[in-house]
Amino acid sequence: MSNTYVPLISSAVAGPLGVLHLPRLWLKASLEAQGKLAAGYPGIGQGYDMMVINALGLKPDAVKAFIGTKPTYPQFESWIKRQPGARLDKATIYKLNVAIMGYIHEDSVRKGILSANGLPDDGSVNPGAVDLNNLDDWFEFHQAVLK
Q1: Contact by Cβ (8 Å): 65, 71
Q2: How many CA atoms lie within 13 A of 1 on its CB side?
Q3: H-type helices in 20-72, by residue range?
Q4: To the nearest whole number, what is the mean pLDDT of the chain?
Q5: Which residues neighbour 110 within 8 Å (Cβ) at sequence distance 6 or greater?
Q6: Beta-carbon neighbour count of residue 142 at 10 Å?
Q7: Tally of domains within the chain
Q8: Crossing angle for the helix pair 22-33 and 60-67, nearest 10 degrees?
């Protein structure tokens, strides 16, 4: 088994603050900070990661630096609450969560994930990015650990 890990926390998971994807962001950035994130996964990527960071009014460099201190997930949420300008009101979190759950990948991404998993691209699989990303993670985990 390798010393790197596929991040298996789904973007559909929220922590105590109620922010979807935040636990996955913490996990990916934490693994990257330790040199343990599986190849092909960004610690802080341009998709959901930046959606969350921007919506909450955080600074990517500050997030990365704090993650480098090896916080637990509750410590990460506590740090977020203390950030100047952090937006944690219910309306902001609701809008962000709706955006995450409603995001649809480009056709090429959908086709690639379905093809890798041996699934038809015939509309029978939920096209939401969260569900497709789950399939992608499970496939990568299978390839790295179970195959």
Answers
A1: no
A2: 9
A3: 22-33, 48-55, 60-67
A4: 96
A5: 104, 121, 127, 132
A6: 12
A7: 2
A8: 60
